[in-house]
Amino acid sequence: MAVPYALGLHEIAPDTYAYLQPDGSWGWSNAGLIVSGDQGLLVDTLFTVPLTRDMLDTVARTLPGVTIGALVNSHCDGDHWWGNQLLPDAEIIASEAAATEMRQDHLHEVLSAPTAPGAAPLPGVVERMRRTFDFGGITPTPPTRTFSGELELKVGERTVRLIEVGPAHTAGDVLVHVPDSGVLFTGDMLFIGGHPVIHSGPAQNWIAACDLMLGLDVGTIVPGHGPVIGKSEVRDFRDYLERVRDHAVRTHRAGIPAVRAAQEMDLDGFAHWDDPERLVLNIGAIHRELNGDGTPREMDLMGRMDEYDEYTAPPVALRGAPRIAPRPADEIAPLAARLDGSPARLLDDDGTGPMGGIPLLNVLATIGNHPDLLVALAPLLAGLTEGLLPARERELAILRTAHRTGSSYEWEHHARIGAAAGLTAPEIARVPLGPDGSGWDEADRTLLRAVDELYEAHALSSATWRRLAAHHSTAQLLELLALVGTYAMIAGILKSCRVPLDAWLTESA
Q1: What DSSP line would sit under 179-227, residue for residue?
Q2: Residues 187-205: pLDDT tens digits?
Q3: Backbone phi, then psi, for 363, in 5-degree steps?
Q4: Are 30 and 187 in contact (CB under 8 A)?
Q5: What is the pTM of this model?
């Protein structure tokens, strides 16, 4: 059944309804109604008292004589329960995890209170919601019945299944399954046409919940935000979550902060989705999960979401289809005949060359689309790998270059090479902190500062030059300049061509 995405109550199956609120952006959520005879179960109320009253008035006009005796709140976000007070006689049901957060929720007070003189500014998205919605008169009305796992309810002669799938979007997300009509109300486990928000995570739980949805015998699905859909859109949404997860993991390894990682994500296939600034929260949530220390905090990230749209550089793809595909190794190997020694073995390694017998790197196979360029570059790359700088210094400089340029490909490779060259795991982890991070000795600090100065100004300051010259020969100084410049250049090729990470490296991660 095609359901128009228009404001109001829509029958999506016999005695089963969706209340839709376009455009589905911040605060514009959906609700559901399941009816049997004169009994009704409502899935979610809305963001404000006036919005919820409008919905209930519509239900009363459309279905006179139906009494809503039960209300299920799909999760703890205010746009799905702040209208509960208008159903004082209904049994209100939610997961125990959701109810715990609802009892602690005071956000409506922040949204409804006037801004105090001299108060710190609220995040832009919060200010926009304050201008859009009337948050006056909200009396938080939490659930009167809670459960964990699954719960089966009766609505007249009909059976309704509640399936807890959180933590994912929030701590206690619940799906509402109506088996006799093949309908599923997902709450905010699905956002259609817009980016979702990962408040809680882990993202893997959310992906698993999508698999659960796809396994249910349903044909009509009502998301928390957006139009009524079928299973193909769930598959698209699952793909999105995987893309975000993988990008977040990769940028976390590269030490790229959440805001920048969001700005650089390749949105191929999802560029038409609304609210892309939510990527800041989503990538931040996965970084927070990986950090294990509560950082970056969600409220701090909310205050930085407006920075997403301030980014004017071309979007960078750390994932997605290569713009120039790597050539097969057997097409590159013949080029080795034009070279000698280590440069030749970069292109056709017998196990004794710089790469130690590992497969041809995708970066070289990509540059190999210009064979003369690859043949010219190979001696420089081999020479820098086997040059005059101590291996540990070389790898420290390359890792800092990889971080500053945002090259996750270089980071993934050289985090491993750096460990073999003597960099400890804590040292690699603090490379993103730069020369001002704690734990570096003066020599490391100077080297890191040199990379930063070359990245930012393309020249070394007098002080940094003097410190380097005190411990390095003229040839080593020149090699350092060439090293940083070369790996910055390679980062540009990697990111612009969308060179994929080598499969053997992904499999060993």
Answers
A1: GGGTEEE-GGG-BSSB----SS--HHHHHHHHHHHHHSS-SEEE-SBS-
A2: 999 999 999 999 999 999 9
A3: -65, -40
A4: no
A5: 0.67
